[in-house]
Amino acid sequence: TAGKAITCKAAVALAPKQPLSIETIIVDPPKAGEVRVRVIANALCHTDVYTWEGSDPEGLFPCILGHEAGAIVESVGEGVSSVKPGDHVVPCYTPQCNEPDCIFCRSPKTNLCPRIRGTQGKGLMPDGTTRFKRADGTPLYHFMGCSTFSEYTVLAAISCAKVHTAAPLEKMCLLGCGVSTGWGAVWNTCKVENGASVAVFGCGAVGLSVIQAAKLSGASRIIAIDLNPQKFTAARAFGATDFVNPKDIEGPIQQHIIKMTQWGVDYSFDCTGNTEVMRAALECAHRGWGTSCVIGVAASGKEISTRPFQLVTGRKWVGTAFGGWKSRSDVPKLVERYLDGELEVDAYITHTFKGVGATNDAFEALHGGDCLRAVVVY
Ligand code: NAD
Ligand code: AHE
Ligand code: ZN
Q1: Can you give the residue ranges of the Alcohol dehydrogenase-like C-terminal domain (predicted)?
Q2: What is the tens place of the pLDDT at every residue in 321-350?
Q3: Is pLDDT at 2 greater than 80 in this prediction?
Q4: Domain-wise residue ranges, the chain
Q5: Does the beta carbon of 209 sit less than 6 angstroms from any atom of ligand 1?
């Protein structure tokens, strides 16, 4: 098939909030610096739902959503030597160009390589065009440099993390976003230390992976906060020690957490995307040194606020994208740690579906309240 267009099935987002249209699309061959992959499995992340709902200022329609996947390289474009047909890859929305002139890739302080960010945010491949069209020839936008709700997709080679073939791609898809993000927020962004106290707002897959990583870092107290008490079972299993449902308490949640801990927590994490929750998370951080990390993605137009006094008195407000992991160097290492039995991933998968045509069912499952990750195996 190399060099030829492929006809395959995809779940197409034609407009916000409309069920995805399961249809046959045409996927063009990869151009220079690009890779065409066969998607093996795809997990839904809340960010897919958020964009589908029309909440992302960069959301473009019609498009192919999806960014948490495991895939196998089908063909490569001119000049690509980092991967070859048959390689197993995890597509990563944060690329890593590793060019000598990329001050971001050179710096140990960040993973935010900007090489293709401009076109990625416009739903296009790096050359400013799309590789997808509907059967009638209408072009389709890409999404987050991944667009994995399709049996085949085209990625920039710098977005492909090559992983060990022994690792099951129907599990490793989770390392393409949510679970890696929570781990990295704890280990890279905040560097939570032994004995620390932690508050986690929102116990979906992202919040739970924060809890899992905090426990592995030796946190002494891990407070899980969620409006849905069903989430506390998994939170406990991953290492949370305290559980708070904001619906069950009097007054603001930040005051409640401060009462529980005397001065607040050493680290707090927003894993909800709600800007009021982000404020509460900052304000329950410890006087003098508490750090609060924004992970959740807020809807278009939303802004955060707090009294500057909260920062003057020593709290820090930070944020993370993909947990600070440098995608092509770090994701393969996380996969190795999974293979070594060091990092649990399977427990996040609460629902499994078969075929890209089931993507709408997976969306429904994610809305159900008892779902952490729904994986669609293609
Ligand atoms: P999810 O929907 O599975 O989980 C969110 C959880 O928050 C749910 O359990 C929900 O009940 C809970 N919640 C909602 N409102 C709450 C409130 N007011 N107080 C307490 N709990 C509340 O989502 P997810 O896939 O785990 O993603 C979490 C967030 O992280 C989303 O905003 C997503 O877009 C974002 N995200 C960011 C990154 C990043 O790199 N920064 C990566 C992945 C996901
Ligand atoms: N496009 C949006 C924001 C979306 C956003 O913040 N995305 C997160 C990843 S969410 C993964 O599930 C992110 O890391 N962004 C960094 C980046 O470069 O996109 C907007 O507000 O415009
Ligand atoms: Zn995501």
Answers
A1: 205-337
A2: 999 999 999 999 999 999 999 999 999 999
A3: no
A4: 6-176+345-377, 182-320
A5: no
Dihedral angle computed from the Cα positions of residues 153, 159, 165 and 168, in that order, rounded to the nearest 10 degrees: -70
Calculate the average pLDDT of the chain: 97
- What ipTM describes this predicted complex? 0.99
Categorise residue 136: left if φ over 0, alpha if ψ from -120 to 50, beta otherwise. alpha
Ligand closest to Cα of 143 equals 2
C-alpha span between 34 and 198 (Å, rounded):
41
The residue annotated as part of the active site, out of 92, 105, 271, 293, is: 105
The pTM is what? Answer: 0.97
Q: What residues flank ligand 2, with Cβ below 6 Å?
A: 45, 47, 56-58, 117, 177, 297, 321-322
What fold, for 182-320? Rossmann fold (3.40.50)
Is pLDDT above 90 for 163? Answer: yes
User: Given the structure tokens 């699309």, which residue do they identify?
Assistant: 25
Confidence of residue 126 (pLDDT cuts 50, 70, 90): very high
SS3 133: strand
- The answer, yes or no, to whether residue 34 has pLDDT greater than 90, is yes
Displacement of CA 118 from its chain's centroid (Å): 19
Q: Point out the ligand 1 atom lying closest to the alpha carbon of residue 47.
A: 34
Q: Is 190 designated active site?
A: no
373 is known as an active-site residue? yes
The fold of the 6-176+345-377 domain, in CATH, is Quinone Oxidoreductase; Chain A, domain 1 (3.90.180)
Q: How far is the CA of 179 from the centre of ligand 3 (A)?
A: 9
